[in-house]
Structure formats: structure tokens, C-alpha cells
From TrEMBL:
<dbReference type="GO" id="GO:0030246">
    <property type="term" value="F:carbohydrate binding"/>
</dbReference>
<keyword id="KW-0430">Lectin</keyword>
<dbReference type="InterPro" id="IPR001304">
    <property type="entry name" value="C-type_lectin-like"/>
</dbReference>
<dbReference type="InterPro" id="IPR050111">
    <property type="entry name" value="C-type_lectin/snaclec_domain"/>
</dbReference>
<dbReference type="Pfam" id="PF00059">
    <property type="entry name" value="Lectin_C"/>
</dbReference>
<feature type="domain" description="C-type lectin">
    <location>
        <begin position="12"/>
        <end position="136"/>
    </location>
</feature>
<dbReference type="InterPro" id="IPR033989">
    <property type="entry name" value="CD209-like_CTLD"/>
</dbReference>
<dbReference type="InterPro" id="IPR016186">
    <property type="entry name" value="C-type_lectin-like/link_sf"/>
</dbReference>
<protein>
    <submittedName>
        <fullName>C-type lectin domain family 4 member E</fullName>
    </submittedName>
</protein>
<dbReference type="InterPro" id="IPR016187">
    <property type="entry name" value="CTDL_fold"/>
</dbReference>
Length: 139
């Protein structure tokens, strides 16, 4: 049986992705992805990270390329878990990140976004800050 992505989704490596340019908090973004039958993206490899960055570059024509991914340490500070409960294995942090820096209004940085259009692009930031999102469904 061969499954294909629904319209508006892009297939790659046995997964289907939807890039959403409207902005929302991490929790609202996750709820939206779950309502679509998926979740925020879980990045399992360098190859997947590179694919996502290339797709973002092809879709976004402005400097607003911050996208939520499905990684958080909101349960235990410093213990990064994917939305499926699995621990972080391979990572692509920007140098000096994660730093749990105190963000806007003194909020801790417990959620992760792709923030740069380069391999080392992950940044922890407050979960309530608005960002675009990438939803994922396994095929």
C-alpha cells in the first residue's frame, strides 16, 4: 500500500510536512498540527534538517523564517524531549544555545524553533512567542 500526502503537504523520507506561515505560540501550533492529524515536526537526522531548511528557503521571501519544531524542555529544565516523548539525539543548536535565556517579559526559553537558514539553526525561546510552524505526519 502506498500512501501519499494530502494536498498542501510535502512528502519526504516517509513523512509528510506542512509549512504554515501564520504565527502562533508553541502550544497553539502543536494543537493546530494535532488537529490536522499530525504533530510539530520531529527532526531525526541531518538529512531531514537540511530538507526542512531547503523547503523554508524556497517558500519564505522575508526575514521571518522562525519556525516551531516539536522539541521542549518544559517538563524538566535541560531535558529536551520531542513531542512523541523520545529524548533528543542529534541536534542542530546555534552556537551558545540552548541557553534558557530570559526572554521577553522574563519568560524562560523552553521551546525550540528553527531560527536561521543554516544547518546549526535551533534556538530555545519562550513558548508563548509567536512563530511559524512545521507540522509532520508519518506515512
Amino acid at each position: 500500500m502506498h500512501l501519499i500526502c494530502e494536498e498542501g503537504w510535502e512528502e519526504h523520507g516517509g513523512k509528510s510536512y506542512k509549512f504554515l506561515t501564520s504565527k502562533a505560540s508553541w502550544e497553539d501550533s502543536r494543537s493546530f498540527c494535532r488537529d490536522l492529524g499530525g504533530d510539530l515536526v520531529k527532526i531525526d537526522s541531518r538529512e531531514e534538517q537540511e530538507f526542512l531548511l531547503e523547503r523554508i528557503k524556497s517558500k519564505i521571501n522575508d526575514d521571518e523564517h522562525v519556525f516551531w519544531i516539536g522539541l521542549t524542555d518544559s517538563e524538566t529544565e535541560g531535558t529536551w524531549l520531542w513531542v512523541d516523548g523520545s529524548p533528543l539525539d542529534e541536534s542542530f543548536w546555534i552556537g551558545g544555545e540552548p541557553n534558557n535565556g530570559v526572554g521577553l517579559f522574563g519568560l524562560r526559553e523552553n521551546c525550540v524553533a528553527l531560527k536561521r537558514l543554516e544547518l546549526q539553526s535551533w534556538n530555545d525561546q519562550p513558548c508563548s512567542s509567536p512563530a511559524r510552524r512545521i507540522c509532520e505526519i508519518s506515512l
